[in-house]
Amino acid sequence: MPLDEFDRGIISSLQEDARMPVAAIADRVALSPTPVSRRIKRLEDDGIIRGYAPVLDPRKLGFELDAYVLINLAAHSDDNIERFESAIQANPYVIACHAVTGDMDYLVHVIARDVEHLSEITLKSLVRIPGVRDVKSIIVLETIKEKRALPLD
């Protein structure tokens, strides 16, 4: 669905602050609140806006370590993939998982309290998933850029 300048302005405003009042968005995009509300509803109904969530600071919640774990499966059978993906879904420290191209099968984003906690997550959870063959960890030293906002051009 093509977005017009008003839709892009509305989305941009919501990406900046999802709690922004409709009246403030309306002022920004030069529409009255009623059409802005209708457009937001349409964007939600069309699945362009999938939801609203607070952006949390992991460090303030005790998660000092951010890591990426690269995982290869021993075989790409339906059973292996299903077991792996179920275990990943159930692990609260896995905040994202992507099937990827290249040398590894999955890129798993993990948060942990510290190195020992990462070791526990990796050695007692991820490595023990039936069908996992190789696991490599990458620890984030510093985050240079992190945005959830998508470009709208």
Summarize the structure.
By secondary structure, the chain is an alpha+beta fold. The chain is built from five helices and four strands; from the N terminus they run αααβαββαβ. The protein folds into two domains: 41 residues, Arc Repressor Mutant, subunit A (Orthogonal Bundle); 82 residues, Alpha-Beta Plaits.
Describe how the helices and strands are arranged:
Layout: H1 5-16, H2 22-29, H3 33-45, E1 65-73, H4 78-90, E2 94-99, E3 106-112, H5 115-126, E4 132-139
Antiparallel strand pairs: 1-3, 1-4, 2-3
Helix pairs in contact: 1-2, 1-3, 2-3
Sketch the topology as an H/E string, one letter per element.
HHHEHEEHE
Q: What is the distance, rounded to the nearest whole angstrom, between the alpha carbons of the first and last residues?
A: 14 Å
Tally of individual helices: 5
Low-pLDDT segments, ≥5 res: none
Give the amount of beta strand, in percent: 15-25%
Q: How many domains?
A: 2
As a whole number of angstroms, the C-alpha radius of gyration is: 20 Å
- Measured as a percent range, the helix fraction is 25-40%
Query: Going across the major beta sheet, what is the strand order?
Result: 2-3-1-4
Report on this model:
With 153 residues, the chain is α+β, with helices and mostly antiparallel strands. It has two domains: 5-45, Winged helix-like DNA-binding domain superfamily/Winged helix DNA-binding domain (Arc Repressor Mutant, subunit A, Orthogonal Bundle), CATH 1.10.10; 58-139, Alpha-Beta Plaits (2-Layer Sandwich). Helices cover 38% and strands 20% of the residues. It contains five helices and four strands; from the N terminus they run αααβαββαβ. The chain has helices spanning 5-16, 22-29, 33-45, 78-90, 115-126, and strands at residues 65-73, 94-99, 106-112, 132-139. The chain has a four-stranded antiparallel β-sheet. Helix 1 (5-16) packs across helix 2 (22-29). It is elongated. The protein starts with a helix and ends in a 14-residue tail after the last strand.
